[in-house]
Design goal:
The protein has a domain of 94 residues. 69% of the residues lie in helices and 0% in strands. It is built from eleven helices and no strands.
Amino acid sequence: MNFIEKLGKALNTMKYLVQQLVVVLLLIGGVLLLLEIPHYEGNALSHKDRVAKLRSQLPTYEIQTFLNHITTRLPHYRDEFQQAEEQTGIPWVLLASMSYQESKWNRRAVSPTGVRGLMMLTRSTAADLGIENRLDPKKSISGGARYLSHLFERLPDTIQRSDRMLLALASYNVGIGHVRDAQLLGQRLGKDPNLWDDMKEVLPLLAKKKYYQDLPHRYARGWEPVQYVKRIREYRKILNQVIKQETKGQQVEI
């Protein structure tokens, strides 16, 4: 047998061994996959149960995203939210939840209307607060908290504190003028202008001409502050549960 024949035989042998090795690896991979399926299904089920325990009205995918951002984004700004609570007395969890609704905790967030930053401040509001750089996280959080506190103080102190804060949140979103319009309209309709549960039914009417045409501030997309407040309350509920579990040494898996 000459050299070329020996080389050809050796190559064929190697090819056969490689083919056999591939078959063995495929078989091992298949066995591992079969073993992993029950484990994956168990994790998926337990994850579904964990989300269900949060008892949120938000879609599941939004809850998952929020939980992920609590882990990956919130730690960068948690101290600033807590400092803002010390300055204003507004719970930092509420401020953080509001900020998430505004910007998803994206410090560079910018809307088509020009509001920007973690708390989505307008240029004029930032100027009134003495803020030059709205993208500065610390200044944005502090400014947003001070502005919310200002709106809260502008509402009558005869309003129950919880309703007063919800009306202040709505004012942050749509403007206090439109909230006062809703209160005026609510009185005409036999609603209590000091109860959020009544005002959340009245606010959407500000988009209908028959209701807004003789109001001081006229048209408003009144359904937006209703959804705005609702989502903030859901985020706050979830974040409070996460913090409660943190204090017990547990972890919300995502």
